[in-house]
Task: inverse folding
């Protein structure tokens, strides 16, 4: 058996080497199809499939408690607000449950880190409970990890664990780092260990610099007071099932603990809820879901776009396979005599099929090897389209899972595109092969029908991809034309977080004034302003609002978004005032409280243009003391594509706590400002990091990165699919013309002119184009419906896009058919008839 396989392999190598043109085209076609598929699979595996690198990840479970969440919520990338718990509830469940080996809590942390003899750096960290690492079963690479004793009491765990990458990058893999003191957000912490290599926490989208006991949040986040408040929801919780305990058993046990706390302890704390909402609140349940992949909003947010891209690359691979099958059928017709002779000499058909499949599998293996280069290109393209904030936890390299997937796809495609050609080529009858070699028409009708069906299928698939790509391109164009309500073309933005560098409230305020003064002195700077909530960065800060005359009963929607901004904010960003005034430096602590609202706010709360002079409160109905002094248009707030919500703006100088600030500089020299701003800040405080420095146009592009990524990648894949379909169509028509040379010669001898001969050839194209186009449009409608949530400003059945996709493919198909049709008109009838 092995000897036979070795013999077949050697023969396959010699055969393919004799046809370098055929082999090169086939390998390149497969490399493009398999490589694009493998690259997108790598992304899909990491976002949707990859388990955490911990022992028995399938025993992990995530906790959520969907339903009414009264009080304050602070949602993060680990999940939506329905997955949040208060700190007291977490501790209650941790103490009372009996079916899990333990519960762990975590929350993202914005960290500014400094150490003696090391440059300061900023990034994301994780607050974690002491049970976090023990439940995961992770072992330290150096020193020890956090333990329950590190967060037993509030604000007493002055320790931290570094991630492997932080240890390598910022501390040179120095083993003496254990026991070293760092300052994290101005607080001295002692390094007790280093997390293992490859472990990047449990939240996709975050690559933690370090891990800090969750009980230290009050120290590292001044102004936080959520440890005792049961109406402050801010942490995410997961656990590990005990051996022999099922998900259903764990759910029942946890809810037996949860319900008495909800009904007897927390329900009486709620105010202002209707009877119906109270019933819903008391009926809340803890929901357990599989936690093998950790907790991340990217698992759900990334599902549709990643699956869509994977489907698109799968279609490209199918078109590539159809091309190879056509090539093998054409090549098999040329080897008919060889197959006939081998059959006549006693070779079995099974033996010949095995030999031909070996050649197909060898082609697939070569294509699979070459596809790794294309997969790397695909991953590089994806990485270039993703903002840095969206790449946390993602790896743009070819790991073992991708290599295994590539090998499996290569094997599968080798069998798919090789089976029918191998079966058909070995049907050869000796006398038929002899007649074919003498010049008679050869090739079974079944092979011709199969080739035409493959090309028709390619046309259908390419049409669907072109239509989908057109939808995303049009959607991307719609996004680019969205009216933002402000002029930010020449604005540079960045953030500073003084409290993370050890500043107290008084020094922080003085620093903000110094920074704004230094920025105003930069060459070309024409305006400087600031805000607490960054523009168009996906952040949403909201609060209930009380206004005289507006209903205040239970379940009344009084919510609005808000921002705290600096003096001259609207003028600096090119936002016109509709009425009243904007904030000045005089609007500071001790001055009368003021606010500016947008038009959506006035509409929701029934103020219209009478808003100026009205009062509001965001602290309760008994403290309505904030005077509205201005009205502005509806300016985009969180996302470019979102409808503008009701927004009220406050001057941050009237706030008691401003731990960080986003600065905006309008300048005639944006690129120069990007270089000068860090130098200006260094002159004020060399230890204060400049965060998220970029131009506002860059910020806007990053805010719509998903639209850009899907639009550009789908267009590239659709273009590749169309090219492959055109090559396949050209090959079939060229072979058809070659096989029907005598028939065409006879038609010309009987008086057929050039146009008639061309129509004779193109008639075959029109049939395939009509059938394939109709099937493709049906497929495009299905893909459009699946992608509707990703489109902006149009539906998945846009008639203009569908018509344009058909037109483009028709032009490409006619272009591919032109050369064979023209070649047919040049057939010499005397030479063609002489071969009879």
Result:
């Amino acid at each position: 058996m092995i000897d036979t396989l070795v013999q077949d392999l050697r023969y396959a190598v010699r055969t393919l080497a004799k046809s370098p043109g055929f082999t090169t085209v086939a390998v390149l076609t497969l490399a493009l199809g398999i490589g694009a598929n493998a690259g997108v699979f790598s992304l899909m595996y990491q976002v949707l499939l990859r388990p955490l690198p911990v022992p028995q990840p399938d025993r992990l479970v995530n906790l959520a408690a969907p339903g009414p969440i009264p009080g304050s919520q602070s949602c993060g990338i680990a999940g939506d607000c329905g997955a949040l718990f208060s700190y007291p509830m977490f501790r209650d469940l941790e103490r009372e449950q009996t079916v899990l080996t333990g519960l762990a809590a975590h929350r993202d942390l914005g960290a500014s880190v400094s150490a003696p003899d090391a440059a300061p750096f900023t990034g994301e960290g994780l607050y974690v409970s002491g049970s976090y690492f023990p439940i995961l079963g992770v072992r330290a690479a150096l020193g020890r990890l956090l333990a329950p004793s590190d967060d037993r009491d509030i604000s007493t765990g002055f320790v931290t664990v570094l991630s492997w990458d932080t240890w390598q990058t910022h501390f040179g893999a120095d083993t003496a780092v254990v026991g070293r003191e760092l300052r994290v957000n101005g607080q001295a912490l002692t390094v007790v260990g280093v997390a293992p290599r490859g472990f990047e926490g449990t939240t996709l989208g975050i690559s933690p610099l370090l891990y800090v006991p969750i009980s230290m949040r009050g120290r590292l986040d001044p102004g936080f007071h959520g440890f005792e408040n049961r109406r402050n929801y801010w942490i995410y919780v997961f656990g590990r099932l005990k051996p022999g305990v099922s998900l259903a058993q764990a759910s029942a046990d946890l809810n037996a603990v949860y319900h008495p706390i909800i009904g007897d302890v927390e329900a009486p704390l709620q105010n202002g809820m209707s009877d119906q909402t109270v019933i819903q609140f008391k009926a809340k349940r803890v929901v357990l879901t599989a936690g093998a992949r950790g907790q991340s909003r990217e698992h759900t947010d990334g599902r549709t776009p990643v699956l869509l891209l994977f489907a698109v690359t799968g279609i490209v691979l199918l078109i590539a396979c159809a091309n190879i099958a056509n090539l093998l059928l054409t090549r098999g017709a040329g080897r008919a005599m060889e197959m006939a002779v081998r059959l006549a000499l006693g070779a079995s058909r099974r033996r010949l099929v095995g030999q031909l499949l070996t050649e197909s599998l060898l082609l697939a293996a070569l294509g699979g090897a070459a596809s790794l280069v294309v997969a790397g290109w695909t991953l590089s393209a994806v990485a270039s389209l993703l903002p840095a904030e969206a790449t946390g936890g993602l790896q743009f390299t070819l790991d073992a899972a991708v290599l295994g997937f590539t090998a499996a796809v290569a094997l599968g495609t080798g069998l798919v595109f090789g089976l029918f050609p191998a079966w058909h080529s070995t049907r050869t009858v000796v006398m038929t092969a002899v007649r074919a070699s003498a010049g008679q028409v050869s090739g079974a009708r079944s092979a011709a029908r199969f080739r035409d069906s493959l090309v028709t299928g390619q046309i259908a698939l390419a049409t669907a991809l072109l239509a989908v790509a057109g939808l995303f391109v049009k959607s991307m164009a719609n996004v680019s034309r969205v009216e933002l309500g402000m002029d930010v073309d020449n604005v540079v933005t960045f953030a500073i977080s003084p409290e993370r560098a050890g500043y107290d409230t008084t020094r922080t305020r003085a620093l903000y004034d110094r920074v704004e003064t230094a920025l105003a002195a930069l060459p070309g700077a024409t305006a400087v302003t600031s805000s607490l909530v960054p523009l168009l960065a996906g952040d949403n800060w909201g609060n209930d609002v009380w206004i005289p005359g507006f209903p205040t009963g239970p379940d009344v929607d009084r919510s609005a978004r808000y921002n705290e901004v600096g003096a001259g904010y609207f003028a600096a960003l090119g936002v016109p005032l509709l009425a009243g005034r904007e904030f000045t430096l005089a609007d500071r602590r001790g001055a009368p409280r003021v606010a500016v609202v947008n038009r959506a706010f006035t509409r929701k709360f029934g103020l219209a243009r009478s808003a100026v002079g009205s009062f509001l409160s965001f602290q309760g109905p008994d403290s309505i003391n904030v005077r509205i002094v201005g009205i502005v248009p509806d300016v985009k707030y969180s996302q470019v594509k979102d409808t503008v919500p009701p927004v009220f703006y406050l001057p941050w100088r009237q706030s008691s706590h401003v731990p960080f600030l986003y600065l905006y500089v309008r300048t005639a020299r944006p690129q120069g400002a990007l270089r000068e701003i860090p130098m200006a800040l260094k002159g004020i405080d060399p230890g204060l990091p400049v965060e998220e420095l970029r131009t506002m146009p860059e910020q806007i592009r990053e805010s719509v990165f998903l639209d850009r990524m899907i639009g550009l990648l789908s267009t590239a894949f659709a273009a590749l699919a169309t090219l492959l379909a055109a090559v396949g169509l050209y090959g079939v028509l060229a072979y058809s013309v070659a096989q029907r040379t005598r028939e065409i010669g006879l038609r010309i001898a009987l008086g057929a002119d050039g146009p008639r001969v061309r129509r004779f050839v193109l008639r075959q194209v029109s049939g395939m184009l009509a059938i394939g186009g109709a099937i493709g449009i049906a497929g495009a409608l299905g893909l459009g419906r699946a992608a509707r949530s990703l489109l902006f400003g149009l539906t998945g059945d846009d008639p203009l896009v569908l018509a344009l996709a058909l037109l483009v493919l028709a032009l490409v198909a006619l272009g591919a058919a032109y050369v064979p049709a023209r070649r047919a008109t040049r057939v010499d009838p005397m030479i063609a008839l002489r071969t009879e």
